[in-house]
Amino acid sequence: MIEILTPAELDRARVTGRLVADILQSLRQRAVVGTNLLQIDRWAQEMIVAAGAQSCYVDYAPSFGRGPFGHYICTAVNDAVLHGLPHDYALADGDLLTLDLAVLKGGIAADSAISFTVGRAPSPKDTDMIATTERALRAGIAAARPGARIGDLSHAIGSVLSAAGYPINTDFGGHGIGSTMHQDPHITNTGRPGRGYTLRPGLLLALEPWIMADTATLVTDPDGWTLRSATGSRTAHSEHTIAITETGAEILTLPTSAAQ
């Protein structure tokens, strides 16, 4: 299913997007050495409920997971990169943490992810990985405009990742979003330009470049959800929900302070 939002629905999407971004920024500030991943999950639950919104994850049960997910946020640490199931783990100094959050409010969903180092100053390698995903995300957003093809976005993202020397996994990537969290079209993190669905105003997309330091192969934890690098290498993940407008792309998942 591919949805094209009306102007009224787009206004609601902006509200959801800011909520997701504000929650992520709050959690980033509160996630310090000693913070438990289950505590982060509880904080996310409290903020989602207080905003009159719903989690997209609690009842999420796709074919690739051991569902339902049962938590309010994905928390991936170090070599974990996607679908990190919150568990009883206290963050250590130097941990690389990815928070991935999707929320539904006013009938419209938004999805975003951030990676950062907890405690000490990040290592140059971690800094490079995180910065690479952020550059790739900006490149994908810059390529998003009416008349562009999904392949144009994939190519823009993949060009940045490849130029930085990172292997690219195409099993999981960006996606359409709207009244539900995951919709068509699928947006791989590398691809050929000029291919795929043609972008139209009112289309919402979640772009999410993610990388592992030295492999493109994922392994799944016994929890049935958490995906890790097969080599145990560190990982990074950045994501925004964007709306295609008449002139380009609008980032919906910016925090209130940045949107003002």
From TrEMBL:
Annotated binding of a divalent metal cation 2, by residue: D111, H175, E208, E239
Catalytic activity: Release of N-terminal amino acids, preferentially methionine, from peptides and arylamides
Binding positions for a divalent metal cation 1 per the UniProt entry: D100, D111, E239
Annotated cofactor note: Binds 2 divalent metal cations per subunit. Has a high-affinity and a low affinity metal-binding site. The true nature of the physiological cofactor is under debate. The enzyme is active with cobalt, zinc, manganese or divalent iron ions. Most likely, methionine aminopeptidases function as mononuclear Fe(2+)-metalloproteases under physiological conditions, and the catalytically relevant metal-binding site has been assigned to the histidine-containing high-affinity site.
GO cellular component, one term: cytosol
Stretches assigned to the Peptidase M24 domain: 14-246
EC code(s) of this entry: 3.4.11.18
GO biological process: proteolysis
InterPro entries registered for this protein in UniProt: Creatinase/aminopeptidase-like, Pept_M24, Pept_M24_MAP, Pept_M24A_MAP1
Molecular function as annotated in GO: initiator methionyl aminopeptidase activity; metal ion binding; metalloaminopeptidase activity
Keywords: Aminopeptidase, Hydrolase, Metal-binding, Protease
Lineage top rank: taxon: Bacteria
Necessary cofactors: Co(2+); Zn(2+); Mn(2+); Fe(2+)
Ligand binding (substrate): H83, H182
Family: Belongs to the peptidase M24A family. Methionine aminopeptidase type 1 subfamily.
PANTHER family per the UniProt record, alphabetical: METHIONINE AMINOPEPTIDASE
Subunit structure, interactors included: Monomer.
Function (record text): Removes the N-terminal methionine from nascent proteins. The N-terminal methionine is often cleaved when the second residue in the primary sequence is small and uncharged (Met-Ala-, Cys, Gly, Pro, Ser, Thr, or Val). Requires deformylation of the N(alpha)-formylated initiator methionine before it can be hydrolyzed.
Protein's recorded name: Methionine aminopeptidase
Gene: map
